[in-house]
């Protein structure tokens, strides 16, 4: 319960996660029927990048700060939905506010947050919003209570834990199996850190051994993942990706690679790997 995302909002990992999240939501919006989104680790909802916490690390400057140096006319086409949402929403949005931005009248969002200091601003952000329900509860425990969604057959579950506990990868793997048993048609997106390869490989192996099919891993590496004390990159693993998402994800990651690459130093690498077919 020590992790506070305000220190890291808008960094490179947020750019990757949120750009891919909006791409998934865009695919869901192509069909007229409503969809349901469950955000298991919602955070505050949005973040002030001029705050003491954000300025203390300054991580956003090498992330969304770099991207916003471009004008709307010169921004990469693959990032226009993401940057358009950031510019429209003002304070840097967290995943629940990005999701709310993409909802249509027939869609719904359930946002879970356990940290007492974060759930209060989350409730304020969505007060009196009939399409959003905020839950002060453990997101993993909420899977049984909120899935399958009532009246909606399509949707997305976003799992974005702080990864401050040694069993977070194992807990994510168990969550995927539970979601598949209760919401088979749902898309699952899990953000994960890449510090070194062993935990990521073990996570992916656990999913394969559990029989999870139709999986891709989208990874963005600032440097080779050799130092386990550093955040060397991140990934988003997607189960049941919509048809065409891989191509859009490749374009998004390539645009971020170009925009966020430092003038000197380590070279950013991106990779999309299909871990299991349908």
From TrEMBL:
GO cellular component, one term: cytosol
Residues the entry annotates as binding S-adenosyl-L-methionine: 18, 41, 95, 113, 138-139, 160
Entry annotation: catalytic residues: 160
Top-level taxon: Bacteria
Residues at the site labelled Interaction with substrate rRNA: 3
A single BP term in Gene Ontology: rRNA base methylation
InterPro entries referenced in this protein's UniProt entry, alphabetically: RlmJ, SAM-dependent_MTases_sf
Keywords assigned: Methyltransferase, RNA-binding, rRNA processing, S-adenosyl-L-methionine, Transferase
One Gene Ontology term of the molecular function aspect: RNA binding
Catalytic activity: adenosine(2030) in 23S rRNA + S-adenosyl-L-methionine = N(6)-methyladenosine(2030) in 23S rRNA + S-adenosyl-L-homocysteine + H(+)
Assigned EC number: 2.1.1.266
Subunit (UniProt): Monomer.
Role description: Specifically methylates the adenine in position 2030 of 23S rRNA.
Family: Belongs to the RlmJ family.
Protein name according to UniProt: Ribosomal RNA large subunit methyltransferase J
Provenance organism: Gluconobacter morbifer G707
């Amino acid at each position: 319960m020590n992790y506070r995302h305000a220190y890291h909002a808008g960094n490179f990992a947020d750019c990757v996660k949120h750009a891919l999240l909006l791409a998934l939501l865009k695919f869901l919006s192509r069909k007229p029927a409503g969809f349901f989104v469950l955000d298991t680790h919602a955070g505050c909802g949005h973040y002030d990048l001029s705050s003491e916490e954000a300025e203390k690390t300054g991580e956003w400057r090498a992330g969304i700060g770099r991207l916003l140096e471009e004008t709307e006319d010169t921004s990469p086409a693959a990032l226009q939905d993401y940057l358009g949402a950031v510019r429209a929403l003002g304070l840097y949005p967290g995943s629940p506010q990005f999701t709310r931005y993409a909802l249509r009248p027939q869609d719904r969002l359930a946002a879970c947050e356990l940290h007492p200091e974060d759930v209060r601003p989350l409730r304020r952000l969505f007060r009196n919003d009939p399409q959003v329900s905020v839950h002060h509860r453990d997101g993993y425990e909420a899977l049984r209570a909120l899935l399958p969604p009532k009246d909606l057959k399509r949707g997305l579950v976003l799992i974005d834990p702080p990864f401050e506990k040694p069993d977070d990868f194992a807990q994510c793997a168990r969550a995927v199996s539970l979601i598949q048993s209760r919401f088979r048609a749902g898309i699952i997106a899990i953000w994960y850190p890449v510090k070194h390869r062993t935990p990521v490989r073990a996570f992916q192996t656990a999913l394969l051994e559990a029989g999870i099919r139709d999986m891709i891993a989208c990874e963005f590496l600032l440097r080779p993942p050799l130092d386990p004390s550093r955040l060397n990159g991140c990934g988003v693993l997607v189960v049941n990706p919509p048809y065409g998402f891989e191509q859009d994800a490749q374009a998004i990651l390539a645009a971020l690679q170009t925009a966020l690459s430092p003038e000197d130093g380590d070279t950013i690498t991106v990779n999309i790997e299909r871990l299991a077919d349908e």
